[in-house]
Amino acid sequence: MLESASMQPRPLVAAAFREHERFVWGLAYRMTGSAADADDVVQETFARALEHPPQRLDTPLRPWLTRVAINVARDALRRRKRRPYVGPWLPSPVETADLEELGGEPTGEALGVDARYDLRESASFAFLVALEALTAQQRAVLLLRDVLDYSVRETAAALSLSEPNVKTTHHRARHAMSAYEGARRPPTSALSDATRAALERFLTAILSEDLAAAEACLADGARATSDGGGEFLAALQPVRGPDRVARFILGVQKKSQAVGRFAMRDVNGLPALVAEVDSSASRWAPRYVVRCEIDDDGKIRELHLVVASAKLSAIGPIVA
């Protein structure tokens, strides 16, 4: 039974939806790396809340919603992993302003006293790409422990695991994140400025068809990854090496024969180019996002091109 007969679950759940929708969406996005999947998780979480509301409606709903959303997202991840995907998978780009409501704190602040990753870093592209090395359960444990700052006991209760299982899973998750930790560069204002400058230099060289200048913007181990999802033209494997990356991007720019609108946006905590183009080339994406990760010398070490339309649902149109 509900704690109080006078409480009506539907109005309370509706109020909870309005209050916690962005929190649940932000949590689901960090869990799945997909804006579309996050939309689905939000709908499923609140559908379950309406069908099977928590027994106590006089206590905070956020912990209960967190538990449901994490488990719904965990199921979504497992289904996605079983489906084949054409080419490399990249997270959905999301404008930074839409990612700042996970914990109610301003961007850059930790979600808990001992949280390992703060609000902005936990939604960064580098972090979300690193999470792909984790199982769904490892990802859930890592987010609850190291982002939401849940205790072992709270994590075990949320995921229906034993406390020893949580500790083991957390240890394995952190081990799987060791490569990320080794190159870790949490988003800061200084990194944002340097990233914008590097991306602008590279794109200027490409538009000028200056291959040498483009190569000079790239680190020795530079890699370009493009996600077309089988929908639009994209490299089916990452392109490696500064010479090959520069030639690949220059070739793409020439073949697209595109004209359109371009804007720099703050995406997942760092600047990125958003493009809307009209192209006569076959199977060329009408919209795409270009973003990068830089090294300590300000050179691009990772270049990401997201062109699959399903990945761009959270990127708003360019307003003239």
How would you sum up this structure, described in words?
- The protein is of the alpha+beta class and 320 residues long.
- It folds into two domains: 9-182, no CATH class; 189-312, Roll (Nuclear Transport Factor 2, Chain: A), CATH 3.10.450.
- The protein has helices at residues 9-32, 35-51, 62-82, 125-131, 136-147, 152-159, 163-176, 178-182, 189-207, 211-216, 242-256; strands at residues 218-227, 239-240, 259-267, 270-278, 287-294, 300-306.
- It has a six-stranded mixed β-sheet.
- Strand 4 (270-278) and strand 5 form a beta hairpin.
- Helix 1 runs antiparallel to helix 2 (35-51).
- The longest helix is centred in the N-terminal third of the chain and has 24 residues, at 9-32.
- The chain is globular and about 65 Å long.
- The N and C termini lie far apart (55 Å).
Could you list some keywords that capture this structure?
6 strands; 6-stranded mixed sheet; 320 residues; alpha+beta; Nuclear Transport Factor 2, Chain: A; 2 domains
- Major pleated sheet: 6 strands, mixed
Label the overall shape.
Answer: globular
* Portion in strands: 5-15%
Class from helix and strand fractions? alpha+beta
Q: If you average the pLDDT, what whole number results?
A: 88
- Count every beta strand, where a strand is a DSSP E run of 2 or more residues: 6
Spatial order of strands in the largest sheet: 2-1-6-5-4-3
Distance between the termini: 55 Å
The domain count comes to 2
Q: What is the string of helix and strand elements?
A: HHHHHHHHHHEEHEEEE
Taking all Cα atoms into account, the compactness measure Rg is 21 Å
- What's the multimeric state? single chain
Helix content class? 40-55%
Poorly predicted ranges: 1-7, 103-111
Number of helical runs? 11
